[in-house]
Design brief:
Blueprint: E1 4-7, H1 13-24, E2 29-33, H2 37-49, E3 54-58, H3 64-78, E4 81-86, H4 101-129, E5 132-137, H5 140-144, H6 150-170, E6 175-180, H7 195-203, H8 213-224, E7 235-236
Parallel strand pairs: 1-2, 1-4, 2-3, 4-5, 5-6, 6-7
């Protein structure tokens, strides 16, 4: 049996597409969710009905006690977590001057602290096993920044920085840490964009289309798999050429 993979924020969007793709390729999958219980359990049932193996487990990833309990339950059901995908994130498009400190801290708590907490707990068994892969989901805005996306861009830049540094630290333990930085993807997070906004983004994307969650999931699966066994500390950017 392949190593179990835990995907945070996997009840919808990129996380859900990633969970389904890993399951299709024979990986036991833990679908983490916080609020979307019905969607998460529905996804697990769908994967299991198709012959895969999946469980849905609730945890607010910004809270270490809940993450610890999630890992304990995941390992009880599926064994050691060999792959961690830090996908869960929150975002809001607004002017920098309209961000209050509570929102700033909450966004960092989910997008960055959650990645830290999950990675630190996952690494306990990975270091013991001298094996493992962590894939963090950033964004092209973490690479270049975006107006009215200062907060989100800052958190996603932090994701890239942690990826590169952690890869250096745990590489000698046989663990790889990589990052995926998607471009504009057709997800709920971008559902607020008008058709005019989407058309502008398409026109600024050399491949002339909006990406799909599956496009990102394929990048995550590659980096987590043995096909990328000599790749660590890297940022793979499925963005249609928007950022080069």
């Amino acid at each position: 049996m392949k190593q179990a993979v835990l995907i945070t924020g996997a009840s919808r969007g990129i996380g859900l597409a990633t969970a389904k793709l890993f399951a299709e390729n024979g990986y036991p999958v833990i679908i983490n969710y916080n609020q979307s219980r019905d969607a998460a359990f529905g996804a697990a049932r769908e994967i299991n009905a198709a012959g895969g193996m999946a469980v849905a487990i609730k945890a607010d990833i910004s809270k270490s006690d809940e993450v610890t309990a999630m890992f304990d339950e995941a390992e009880r059901q599926l064994g050691n977590i060999g792959i961690l995908v830090n996908n869960a994130a929150v975002a809001r498009q607004c002017l920098f001057t309209d961000i209050d400190y509570f929102e700033w801290r909450h966004t960092f708590a989910v997008n960055v602290d959650g990645m830290f907490i999950c990675s630190q707990i996952a690494l306990k068994s990975m270091i013991r096993e001298h094996s493992g892969s962590i894939v963090n989901i950033s964004s092209m805005w973490g690479q270049i920044g975006a107006s009215c996306e200062v907060l989100y861009s800052a958190t996603k830049a932090a994701v890239i920085g942690m990826t590169k540094a952690l890869a250096q630290e745990v590489g000698p333990s046989g663990i790889r840490v990589n990052c995926v930085a998607p471009g504009v993807i057709d997800t709920d997070m971008n559902s607020h964009l008008s058709s005019d906004d989407l058309n502008v983004l398409k026109e600024n994307t050399p491949l002339m289309r909006i990406g799909t969650p599956r496009d990102v999931a394929e990048a995550v699966l590659f980096l987590a798999s043995d096909k990328a066994s000599f790749i660590t500390g890297q940022v793979l950017a499925p963005n249609g050429g928007f950022v080069v």
